Amino acid sequence: MRECLRNDTFHWTEAAQLSFEKVKSGIVNSAALTVFDPSLPTIVSTDASDYGLGAVLTQVHLDGIEKTVAFASRTLSTAERKYSVVEKEALACVWAVEKWRTFLWGTRFTLRTDHQALTTLLSTKGLGRAGMRIARWSARLLCFSYDVIYRAGVHNHTADGLSRLPLPLDAKAEDITEPDMVALLETDLRALSVSDFDAASGACPELDALRAQIKGGWPKTAKSLPPVVKAYFAVRDELSVQDVKVFRGPHRLIVPVALRYQLVTLAHETHQGVVRTKQRLRDLYWWPGMDSCVEDFISTCTTCRSHDKTARTYPAPLQPVPLPDGPWQKVGIDVVGPFEMATWDCRYA
User: What is the reported pLDDT for 311?
Assistant: First the structure.
């Protein structure tokens, strides 16, 4: 066919026609590439090297043969080369799926990787267990319906080869590096002042009754005590009064009811565990049921629950579902919350 372009005048010959038909036949019947068919099972295979990403889009045909639809590769940027191995492998998965969004949107497909940890981290089982970067990437894939499976690296030849000889990074491509994470530091101190503690102690009815009981003496049994001070009977020999403050032992203050929630919040400000929060409070304060109060507070802490590696994980509330065949076949609802200041049974609406 090139002979037709060498002269000043274009002349289509019988040989050129035969050559053209041969090229068309080679494209249609190619064993390397095939046309995408939405009705066939689709597989996305990915791999990552130290400097590139590789991906292959294939489909399993009726004869059981897996045929390729498209190849893709690209070079990692300077920032991306600093990622850990698992982050590079996860980036390859996310990049490949989003690149072939036109083919994969609305259909269920298989995401195949040679990094076994991603079978958990990129699925709903990995929610709350992955790092922040992989968790954000996993959230970007929630709009797709897929299954993550592991394939040993010795069988992942094509994607591995593409990742080791990637295409150069397009200078005009959109910068996809992760944004810098900054910390917001508060300049206002939220510590409890002595004057506020004294004022709350003087206005607390429970401490008023406790001070009166300490000054009047304790009975031999707790049966005759008012209900508000019965919880203090077991430590009655350790209690003392100084002005409006009540002490247990030489230095531990009895906290008025109005300030207990605030003190637990301050003790848990850095979101350490239950044991360390209790230790911080026990050094200076005490009140009946303090341990239970700390445990209840931390069990409802949104930050701690989202980063707790030992907690039981649940599927994400947003899950891809098959497209309905007609109107009014599916009804969706939404949840608002959590409301931090609400009671435990009213945190969501």
Answer: 54
